[in-house]
């Protein structure tokens, strides 16, 4: 999948960036439900792409680390900095081996479409790594398509898939995405937002 994303960024075929703008208001509401950060509280943006969600978290007061495996995406994200009042850095790294790329102590993690493209073994490694770098009580907001075969699109993930990979976490929210105004193809994937808390 990493090679496909690298090629997509090279060719400028990044429909997920447009999709992220479509549901920005709903995501903002979900993030607004997370307790405001204490001074210096750290957030992690998994599969951050060109960094828009990382920057939004930084503007909300989080100290943010965005992680992505595509060099061009990270370059474009870094080109958006500095943003006044936003404490954000971008790291070229692999979400299935987070402890190798980021420090510990994160209180919030955001995943807008990364997990649902991973294979089963990768999901297990993602879950173990995320648990290792977050604090007890940390929250995760995760966006996913419903499971299904859709050609080049990510295979999606069900609530059971999420719970299996994130055994140290509890699902506390499961909300269908509001697909009004979304591109037809996105609406057919029955996308959802999961909210989890680390035990």
From TrEMBL:
Gene3D superfamilies: Vaccinia Virus protein VP39. GO terms for molecular function: methyltransferase activity. Pfam families: Methyltransf_25. Keywords: Methyltransferase, S-adenosyl-L-methionine, Transferase. It is an enzyme of class 2 (transferase). Residues 44-137 form the Methyltransferase domain. It comes from the Bacteria. The keyword S-adenosyl-L-methionine applies. Its EC number is 2.1.-.-. GO terms for biological process: methylation. InterPro entries: Methyltransf_25, SAM-dependent_MTases_sf. This is Class I SAM-dependent methyltransferase. It comes from Prescottella soli.
């Amino acid at each position: 999948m990493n090679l496909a994303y690298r090629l997509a960024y090279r060719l400028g075929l990044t429909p997920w960036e447009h999709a992220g703008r479509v549901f920005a208001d709903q995501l903002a509401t979900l993030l607004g439900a997370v307790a405001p950060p204490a001074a210096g509280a750290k957030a992690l943006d998994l599969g951050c792409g060109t960094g828009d969600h990382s920057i939004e978290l930084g503007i909300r007061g989080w100290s943010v680390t965005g992680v992505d495996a595509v060099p061009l995406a990270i370059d474009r994200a870094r080109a958006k900095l500095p943003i006044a009042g936003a404490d954000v850095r971008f790291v070229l790294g692999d979400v299935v081996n987070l402890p190798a790329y980021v420090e510990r102590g994160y209180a919030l993690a955001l995943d807008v479409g990364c997990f649902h493209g991973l294979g089963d073994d990768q999901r297990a490694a993602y879950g173990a790594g995320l648990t290792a770098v977050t604090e007890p009580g940390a929250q995760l907001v995760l966006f996913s398509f419903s499971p299904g075969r859709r050609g080049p699109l990510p295979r999606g993930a069900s609530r059971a898939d999420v719970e299996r990979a994130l055994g140290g976490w509890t699902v506390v929210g499961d909300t269908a995405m509001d697909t009004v105004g979304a591109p037809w193809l996105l609406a057919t994937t029955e996308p959802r937002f999961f909210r989890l808390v680390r035990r």
